[in-house]
Structure prediction request, 301 residues.
Amino acid sequence: MDFEWIRIPHALLTLLIVFLYGLLLGAVIQKIGARAGRRHGIPFYQNYIDLIKNYALRTTITHGFMFYLGPVFRLTGGVGLLLFVPTIYGVAMHENFSFAGDLILALYFVFFGSLGMALGAGESGHPYAAIGVSRGLSQVTAAELPFAIAVFAVALQYQTLSVTDIVAAQQGSVFNWTVFTNPLAVTAAMMSFLGSMMRPPFDVVLAPQEIPIGPPTEYHSAYLALMQSNRAIFPIAKMVIYMNLFFGGAANWPVFFLKVFLLYLFAAFVGVVFPRFRVEQSVRWFLVWGVPVAVAGLFWV
Prediction:
């Protein structure tokens, strides 16, 4: 019990580092995307300013109890995912609250935030809320299917459901990484990764250039700040999962920062090259291409 209490401040320190790095990395990726489109982009410090400003605001508008729990559930998904998987392999203070079967819990947390936001949007009272919920959950479900099969293939390959044990099995050489030992499963997982990041061509749920409604405009003040906080934490937490399962994990913070940046850059690169899919196109893409590759990775094992 004493050891568990000691791990709490260490986990909070890890959360703080990831949160600050997520805000910075989000601005860097936005600037890279802007430069690719021959625009200047936002300053590197803009996300910090926006977050402080929104946390300082208050609102008297009410839409129902569940409407305001949506951002809380969304943030819980990101924080929970990060806290229950090891961030830095081999460093006890940054292994957080990982345990023998944490891979199953991680899969639940990946989908938890999306369900929470769906419940919140459903109580907003907006006539188009049901449309946004249906197409959002359709794409998220289709994107998570190849990832779930790829994770099952990895668990079967290493005969464990412990993220720490999976990382340990990849140590010793770069060629021990899952990307080399099971490239088909990793390919399917990276296809799913593009959809889960909600960046082009899979940002149809938000469609920022087309739809002036939805969570970014209906949620405001501190509720919008909660969503901004999750936008900094949740993508990094998902990349921690991908890094641990497929790319050998990270034994120190410099390696962590580099691998997370490269994963984020991969999603940004695809986003500036390909146009946006419609809902049915994105769902079809995951089912026609992602799922067969994931199944092939399962047979590879």
Notes: The radius of gyration is 19 Å. The mean pLDDT is 83. DSSP finds twelve helices and no strands in the chain.
